[in-house]
Every structure is written in structure tokens, then in C-alpha cells.
């Protein structure tokens, strides 16, 4: 298995995700990366940089999509050549009318492929590079054209205000969860709509049950049981910026930590399918794995095959962390002697997951 299963069914020549949409606070709590060698699914790079911020000895960010590699490379250069405020402007987390100028500061150190990629995308740079993905455009469409059908802007702003749990539930039931909001979920967050506008339809091949109902249930959890005012993912979806709440990789306290780690060359960026990288590993090399939601796109057979490759590249005691969105995936019983599920820890962390699309968080530990 030298190529990822999804690679043969979906196109990977554009930016699918201009941000990471998994909550890095769960990831760093699960993997405790300080002093560890980490292998991380690249996506747009945020969660790989979050592992550096949490003290990883090294991070290998692996990504098979060259467009996603360009996202990671530009972030890497921005960490090194911009200050924190400029970095947030370039991303789009903060308003700016000088993003083209900021890009010039980061451009020359980029690898030629990444430089050529971004040179051809001046509009995406002007709009903020964290808006440049298909998934982010899906949310922009929702924010600008769909959400106003159910809620005016003043109510959206009110949702984001700090409240205690009882007040959040009252607000949700009395002002937010109206008939139009329910209708939005049945249409805009259906499997068909998400496949056409947000994700590739092939990403839903192994999905079971109603997409809309599962996401609506998790959204209620994020709006009532968690604090919307502290949720950067929700803030971006509803407003197009991160507000004062930032993902770990973007926070001021972590900016210099990440810059220093990059200067010490503690990150390696690899453009290849994960399966190929693991096949080339000559000995156990990794202590922690950020696997994003990679198994969402795989059959159970290929999931098991990949988990075996991961085990072969792992040091004893290594941890795997990943999400299930709509397709249930975890280590099969046939691998019980190789991987130990840490279900209680994973479930406890999942209750605090601010990126509310997922149905499950999985932590597994490599046995000797």
C-alpha cells in the first residue's frame, strides 16, 4: 500500500483546508509531545506547529497534497519573518489591507514550488491565506448567505458573548434553535451539500447515518455545554476571524516558541502519502502521532493495514491520536496485542472538543 486509498478516488491539487479543523488542545493533551519525536498529518500546518509549541523534540509534517504543503511552507516562513501581529494579519485572523506586502517578507525564503503556488494566488493572499481552502469557502458561503436566513448579525454577536451554562442553554433554546436553524442543518449540512461545496464526495464513502443530525447534535454541545466566547473555530465559522480566542498555534505565548523551534530545524515537511513515508522508515522513529481524521476516508481493511505500519514505526509507549467524524474507525480486535485503546482519557477530552464536527476522539498506545 504505497498510496493512500483516498488518493486514488479524489483530486489533491487544490487547497482543501486552509486551517486545521481539529482542536489542538485535545491533541497536545493526548500526545504530551514534550521531548518526543512526532509524526503529524500536515493539513494546513496549524496542529503540527502546535506540537512544536508544546515542546516536541521534532515534528515531521507529512502531507500528500502539494497545495497543502504550500500552506505549511508559507506559515513556516511567516513564523520566521513576521512578528505576531503581522502573522495574524497574513492569515486573516485580524483585519489588514497590507497582506500583499506582508507576503513579500515571507516570499523569498519559500521553496520554489511553494513560491510559485502563492505567486499565482494574489486574491487568496489579499483575503487572508486561512480563507483559501474549499472548506473555508464552504463556511464563508454559510456565513454570508445561509446563516442570515435564520439569525441576524446582532444575534450572532450575542451568541458569542460570555454566559454561564444555564444562560447559554436558555439562549440556545429561546433564541437560536428556531425552525430555520433546524432547516439549515437538514439542507446545508447534508451529505450532498457538504460533498458538493465543502468536502469531496468521496470523503463520505464510509459514512454511516445522517450527517446533518450528527453535526447538529455536536453543534448544540459546542453552543451550550462549551463557551462560544472562547471557541476560535466557532468564531471563524460565524464571523470570518478568530476574535480574541486563538488556536494554540496562533497564540501570542506560543509564537516565539514556534519560531525558535523552526530556527533549530525541529520541523521537517514531507510531501508524500503517510503510507509511503512509513514504508521508508528503517527503524522505530516516532513517539507520537497526530493522525487527524485520516481513517475517515479508508476502508476497515486499509485502516488496519495502516495501523500496522504505524506500529512498526513506533517506539514502545508511543501514542496515536485521531478523530472520527462520521465513519467509526479504531484499532481492530486483531491488533489488541499491539495497540491499547485509552478510551476513558479520550472520552473525557472529547467533551471539551471545540471543533464540533467530530463524533469521537481516539487515543491508542503502542504496546511493546
List the SSEs and their pairings.
Elements: H1 24-31, E1 37-41, H2 46-53, E2 58-63, H3 66-81, H4 84-91, H5 99-107, H6 112-119, H7 122-127, H8 134-146, H9 153-159, H10 165-176, H11 179-187, H12 191-198, H13 211-225, H14 232-239, H15 252-263, E3 267-271, H16 274-280, E4 286-290, H17 300-312, E5 314-324, E6 339-341, H18 343-350, E7 360-366
Parallel strand pairs: 1-2, 1-4, 2-3, 4-5
Antiparallel strand pairs: 5-7, 6-7
Helix pairs in contact: 2-15, 3-5, 3-6, 4-5, 10-13, 11-13
Descriptive report:
This protein is globular. It has 368 residues and is of the alpha/beta class. Helix 10 (165-176) crosses helix 13. A 7-stranded mixed β-sheet has the order 3-2-1-4-5-7-6. Strand 4 (286-290), helix 17 (300-312) and strand 5 (314-324) form a beta-alpha-beta unit. It has a domain at 145-239. It contains 18 helices and 7 strands. The two termini are 24 Å apart. Helices cover 48% and strands 11% of the residues.
Q: For the residues shown, what is the average pLDDT?
A: 91
Strands, total number: 7
Please state the CA-atom Rg, rounded to the nearest Å: 20 Å
Q: Which sequence of strands runs across the widest sheet? A: 3-2-1-4-5-7-6
Task: Sum up the overall morphology in one term.
Answer: globular
- Portion of residues in beta strands equals 5-15%
Instruction: Give the number of helices.
Output: 18
Biggest β-sheet, characterized?
A: 7 strands, mixed
Indicate the percent of residues in helices.
40-55%
Order of helices and strands: HEHEHHHHHHHHHHHHHEHEHEEHE
User: Distance between termini?
Assistant: 24 Å
> Spans of 5+ residues with little confidence (pLDDT < 50)?
4-10
Structural class: alpha/beta
Amino acid at each position: 500500500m504505497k498510496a493512500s486509498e483516498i488518493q486514488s478516488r479524489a483530486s489533491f491539487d487544490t487547497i482543501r483546508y486552509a486551517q486545521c479543523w481539529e482542536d489542538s488542545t485535545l491533541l497536545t493533551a493526548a500526545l504530551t509531545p514534550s521531548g518526543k519525536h512526532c509524526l503529524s498529518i500536515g493539513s494546513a500546518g496549524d496542529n503540527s506547529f502546535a506540537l512544536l509549541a508544546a515542546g516536541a523534540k521534532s515534528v515531521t509534517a507529512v502531507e500528500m497534497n502539494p497545495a497543502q504543503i504550500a500552506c505549511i511552507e508559507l506559515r513556516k516562513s511567516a513564523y520566521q519573518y513576521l512578528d505576531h501581529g503581522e502573522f495574524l494579519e497574513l492569515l486573516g485572523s485580524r483585519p489588514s489591507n497590507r497582506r500583499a506586502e506582508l507576503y513579500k517578507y515571507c516570499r523569498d525564503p519559500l521553496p520554489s514550488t511553494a513560491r510559485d503556488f502563492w505567486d499565482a494566488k494574489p486574491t487568496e493572499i489579499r483575503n487572508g491565506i486561512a480563507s483559501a481552502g474549499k472548506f473555508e469557502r464552504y463556511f464563508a458561503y454559510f456565513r454570508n448567505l445561509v446563516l442570515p436566513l435564520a439569525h441576524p448579525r446582532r444575534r450572532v454577536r450575542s451568541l458569542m458573548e460570555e454566559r454561564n451554562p444555564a444562560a447559554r442553554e436558555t439562549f440556545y433554546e429561546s433564541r437560536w434553535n428556531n425552525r430555520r436553524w433546524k432547516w439549515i442543518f437538514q439542507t446545508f449540512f447534508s451529505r450532498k451539500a457538504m460533498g458538493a461545496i465543502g468536502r469531496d464526495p468521496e470523503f463520505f464513502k464510509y459514512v454511516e447515518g445522517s450527517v446533518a443530525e450528527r453535526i447538529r447534535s455536536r453543534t448544540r454541545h459546542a453552543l451550550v455545554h462549551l463557551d462560544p466566547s472562547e471557541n476560535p473555530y466557532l468564531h471563524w465559522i460565524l464571523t470570518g476571524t478568530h476574535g480574541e480566542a486563538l488556536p494554540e498555534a496562533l497564540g501570542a505565548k506560543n509564537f516565539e516558541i514556534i519560531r525558535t523551534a523552526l530556527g533549530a530545524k525541529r520541523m521537517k515537511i514531507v510531501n508524500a502519502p503517510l503510507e509511503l513515508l512509513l514504508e521508508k522508515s528503517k527503524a522505530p522513529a516516532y513517539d507520537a502521532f497526530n493522525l487527524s481524521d485520516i481513517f475517515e476516508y479508508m476502508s476497515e481493511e486499509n485502516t488496519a493495514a495502516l495501523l500496522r505500519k504505524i506500529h512498526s514505526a513506533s517506539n514502545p509507549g508511543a501514542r496515536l491520536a485521531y478523530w472520527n467524524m462520521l465513519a467509526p474507525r479504531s484499532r481492530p480486535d486483531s491488533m489488541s496485542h499491539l495497540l491499547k485503546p485509552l478510551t476513558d482519557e479520550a472520552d473525557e477530552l472529547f467533551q471539551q472538543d471545540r471543533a464540533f464536527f467530530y463524533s469521537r476522539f481516539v487515543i491508542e498506545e503502542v504496546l511493546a
